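Researcher: Please generate the 3D structure of the following complex. Treat every line as part of one assembly.
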Amino acid sequence: MPTLESLPHVLPEVALAVTAAALFVLEALWQPRGRARRVGFPLLALGGLLAALLFLVASPSSAEPRFFGGLLTQDPFSTFVRGVAIVATALAVGLALGSPSLPSNRRVEYHGLLVLLALGMCLLSSAGHLLMIYVAIEIVSLTSYLLAGFDDRGGRSAEAGLKYVLFGGVASGVMLFGFSLLFGLFGDLSLSGLGQALAHSTTLSTGAGRWATLLALVFVLAGLGFKIAAVPFHMWCPDVYEGAPTPFTALLSVGPKAAGFAVLLRFGTGLWPELATDAAAATSALPWLLLLGVMSTVTMTVGNLAAIWQDNLKRLLAYSSIAHAGYMLMGVVAGGREGPGAVAVYLAVYLIMNIGAFAVVSAVDRSAHSEDIGVYHGLGRRAPLLALAMAVFLLSLTGLPPTAGFVGKLYLFASLIHHGGFWYVLLAVVGVLNSVVSLYFYARVLRAMFLESAAGEPAPVSLANSAAALAVVLAVPTLALGIFWQPLAAIANFSGSLF
Amino acid sequence: MTATIFILLAALAVLGAVLAVLLPNAVHAAMALIVMLVATAGIYLLLSAPFVAVIQIAVYAGAIMVLFLFVIMLMNVELRIPLRRWTLVAGTVAGGLFLYQTVHLLRGVMDDQARSGADGFGSAHEVSSVLFAEYVVPFELVSVLLLVAIVAAVVLGKREAA
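Model: Done. Output below.
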């Protein structure tokens, strides 16, 4: 579809870009103080995000899914992930209200950058061209580096920002090298073109060609693995999550990950179109699936085992988010229609429960000024509502019924088992075993909150802030979706197809 | 005539490159690098690729060199860097390998045939029609990327308001 006719399909992105520009320009021209600054700008950002969401819901359906001459692809899966990215950003705006970890003189930039991050994530989830993928990844990365180092109290946040820049720079450089190898080998940058070239090219018939292709795939996987924080590209994750301002950590753990999974899925189905329809027939994609399968196994195992030793809640949640990337990779390996559907369901559930958990951490941090597990001792008595919400999120992250996390895991395991085959079922078994391990460290937090009593006279935890309110609000769907899961089933049906 | 100009430009380029490595003063070395880049731009002109020549001057001899000089001056780089023997040896080995590879590659291409593009290939018109028609979306998004970079610089430079 040519450029001008494509425009109605990217109205959400246009709305986001306009909102960000408006935020920056208004702050420069008007320089508001006091209430307008504290409330007005977040409201403007929320308004822009809401407009983008409405445009997304109302976006015209089109028989031709490729826009701008194949640069962007719109399919149900990308529409869904764009929605997840926008909602996650809106939640991060809500969490940031009154958060002490954001310096007051940088607040407007925080919101502008969040909106640009949402723009990057939307583009990333619908990019169907290597050039587009690269530009979108850089928009997401650059804003994330900056936002990770946003807190100017002490050096922890600056360290996080710097570490993220260094790791991210190397990862995107390696990925770009992979792209250039692919372009050199197959002479095309669009994913559909690469898919055709892979099917017909003689490159793969020589040994050297096969090795070069495999190398390119590994390099691309390194860049995308960095975005979803999969082992062995996860080293930045705990430090960055710990140092970054908590409202942004909540977004970082969900948004870029969702967009990364969208790219990963689209890259796979673009290069091997059989993956999208009949995963079992995609024998030519075996090296890619093997890489992803090994990555999935290692990621969940390392994430869960490392989380056991963490005493800082943000680090614990960081390792848990690594493990969850491993679970979601199972859906990517399963492929077909069920795999992406399961990943979409899990992303929806993960959005609610993980941002909810970080909201509790943010709420406790505001009173206790610490994320150490020690300050959670006796939280069940001091702030029962907050502790109850946290319990719901943790049970959901473990995947126990009757929470939404259980339904999400069920879909992921089911997609693998329905696919069949020894290795696929083995991967599902590894996933189940890992869920059991994860119960141990999530339960540690539960024990601290409800069974242990606080030493000394701890500061009372206030519920009158946006983080606590969001945590309590998010706990409701986490429980409700575990019992009435029709909405999740609808998501799985809707977003299973990728073009 | 063309051969004379080429030899002059090539000699200038080699001279600039050698000086850029050997001069102990970082600012002088950067200046020598400019000579090399401008001479290369002249060679592009000889090869009837005016667009590439202009880009070479604007981007490399202009923007990138200004960036180099800024970094040298702002970061207070040690201005006198003594040339150690092992760096010389390592550099010669790496450079020799690179030269070998380049010659090898070029000979492969030459043997094939001197491949020249279609009429107008690489001209400003061709480049811009690809950049602003086919790839206009990524082009615009790069400006978003630059906006993020500018905001980043401002935010990082901001001090706590008094």
